[in-house]
Amino acid sequence: MQPEIRKIVTFDEETLIEGYRAAPRPWRMFAVAAVVKNPWAGRYVEDLSPEIYAYGPVLGEILTARMIALAGGGDAIEAYGKAAIVGLDGEIEHASGLIHTLRFGNHYRQAVGAKSYLSFTNTRGGANAPLSIPLMDKNDAGRRSHYLTVQFAIPDAPRADEIVVALGGATGGRPHHRIGDRYQDLKEMGHDLDNPAAV
Known about the structure:
Layout: E1 5-18, E2 21-37, H1 49-71, E3 79-86, H2 92-99, H3 102-112, E4 119-124, E5 131-137, E6 148-152, E7 162-170, H4 182-188
Parallel strand pairs: 3-4
Antiparallel strand pairs: 1-2, 2-7, 3-5, 3-7, 5-6
Helix pairs in contact: 1-3
């Protein structure tokens, strides 16, 4: 059982000036999305696992390989995330099913050497619906400079019986980050950062 992929779309953005000031180095955010036929569209299916277990590894491998090629290697990706949009004849559960499985996400996590979980969105929409992929630092969930969102749309997807599945990444955080990190807030609130149980 293989996913029926209609198209693969790549998004790549390079920012040279942010906030009227040159970035210290070009700041890239990018994504790869697969437009897949929804095998459960238009009906209620109790057990989604056969397709999830069959599609997850294939989609994870394809999208991860393209992300690594875009970045020039897994080490170049500092922030990462995933997302899915299900078409109007599907359930949010269908979008969730294709991205919330280790068989999908582990390809990406391992390829970039990550410790953090993959941040995510799963939504429903029609063609040209905005695909928003939230990103976070691949090794430090409290590093706010890397709280980012890759956003783009595919004019003809998802169709009612499709799901768009995507991975996103960035080569760094916001160029002029100056709002601090979670740790500073926690310290100001009196939390003992050397004792994780106290936070």
